[in-house]
């Protein structure tokens, strides 16, 4: 029994209150069951939702919290019923680690919309176990929520695809953005989500315009990320010239902002898809929707089948995140910078090489 207990011991960095300060935290993972995969975590991306959650910005945080849902690692143990993976495989774990497996959404491979969805952290499993995320040395996950990480993807810069990548890929598929090459996509906000949206949009053959409040990122958006053009919302003449020119807009901004300028950019029948999660509700202008037969929708990550499809697509097209690799001990300063949007464009923690020394 003592040996089993030792095997379940885990170590990570947790927030203990809404200050959001992360510090070393010892805890236990569950036993590796018949359907489980135990993963030694190599890298974990730092998502903006991690920051919101540790600060309790959305009002449903339960401490202590170990964040992290962009996990890449190595399978170190598999249960007897596991058929998809073997020890030594490189795998990924994203935003969700459980669902009911029987509802309409689950039966359609949309586990991300299951009413009994279990998130990777700040959640409880059906047996009451509190789930902790990827800012830790290992994780135990049901094989149905583990992803095969393609050979062509680097572990570090590929990790953010497990949240940011699928968050922009799924709405492109669902809202018809991939059905006809040459359609015009506007990407509002050039951060962790936005910069990957540019890359995936171009791989799908779309004309991509980045929409931003300032021109600070214009050269890198076009020269490095491959955007076709850059539109500054404070430039009234350029906004006027761009009126009614876009088929779709992906709104990745998580801060409070006006939707009205974005509606103006859409053509008749255009679609605005919200991906960012501001702390307070946004005002929805009805007149431009009615008078232009425009649509507004939303999207949350993707199901497991679609997430695997996205990883394979990104491997085929050499799409990865632009990252800043950090040590575990740097996480609090990284969170401070993330709150100021001071990152190009995703922090990724080198977990395996730094968590023990931290």
TrEMBL record:
* UniProt key word Transmembrane: no
Q: Which Gene3D superfamilies does this chain map to? A: Medium-chain alcohol dehydrogenases, catalytic domain, NAD(P)-binding Rossmann-like Domain
Q: List the cofactors.
A: Zn(2+)
Pfam families membership: ADH_N (PF08240), ADH_zinc_N (PF00107)
Domain Enoyl reductase (ER): start-end pairs: 20-349
Any idea which UniProt keywords this protein has?
A: Metal-binding, Oxidoreductase, Zinc
Entries under CDD domains matching the protein: CAD1
Q: Per its UniProt record, what InterPro entries does this chain match?
A: ADH-like_C (IPR013149), ADH-like_N (IPR013154), ADH_Zn_CS (IPR002328), CAD-like (IPR047109), ER (IPR020843), GroES-like_sf (IPR011032), NAD(P)-bd_dom_sf (IPR036291)
Question: Does this UniProt record's set of keywords contain Lyase?
Answer: no
Instruction: Describe the family membership recorded for this protein in Swiss-Prot or TrEMBL.
Output: Belongs to the zinc-containing alcohol dehydrogenase family.
Q: Quaternary form?
A: Homodimer.
Protein's UniProt name: Enoyl reductase (ER) domain-containing protein
Protein's organism:
Brassica cretica
